[in-house]
Amino acid sequence: MNPADPKDCDALDLRPVWREQYESSGPAWDRAVEMGIDPAQLLHNLSLTMTERLLQLDEMTRLYERLHGAALAADAGTPPTSR
Q1: What is the pLDDT of residue 31?
Q2: Distance (Å, whole) CA 52 – CA 33
Q3: Domain boundaries of the chain, sorted by first residue
Q4: Residue 48: which region, alpha, beta or left (left: phi > 0; alpha: psi -120 to 50)?
Q5: How remote is the C-alpha of 70 from its chain's centroid?
């Protein structure tokens, strides 16, 4: 698969599947689906409490920091540090 090739990207377009699986909840919902937002993930995130959302954000931030540190270390040719 080549992400630069539009034909390959079209094969990953799940919007028709989402439109079939999830009933429209109005224009904002339809716009989100058209923008490529996964309705299952959206519904899951909406079901989380504020605390759960903050914990999820904290996890993603820690992952980003680890990956970013590893990428910087790889660019510099040094082993990444662990946290």
Answers
A1: 94
A2: 24
A3: 1-47, 49-83
A4: beta
A5: 20
Structure tokens at 73: 């270390």
Q: Give, in degrees to the nearest 5, the angle at Cα 32 between 61 and 56.
A: 20
Per residue in 25-82, pLDDT tens? 999 999 999 999 999 999 999 999 999 999 999 999 999 999 999 999 998 887 666 6
Q: In this structure, what are the phi and psi dihedrals at residue 79, rounded to the nearest 5 degrees?
A: -70, 145
How is residue 5 annotated by DSSP? S
Is residue 62 within 8 A of residue 70, CB to CB? The reply is no
Between CA 39 and CA 48 the distance in angstroms is 15
pTM passes above 0.70:
no
Reading the block at residue 37, the tokens are 């937002």
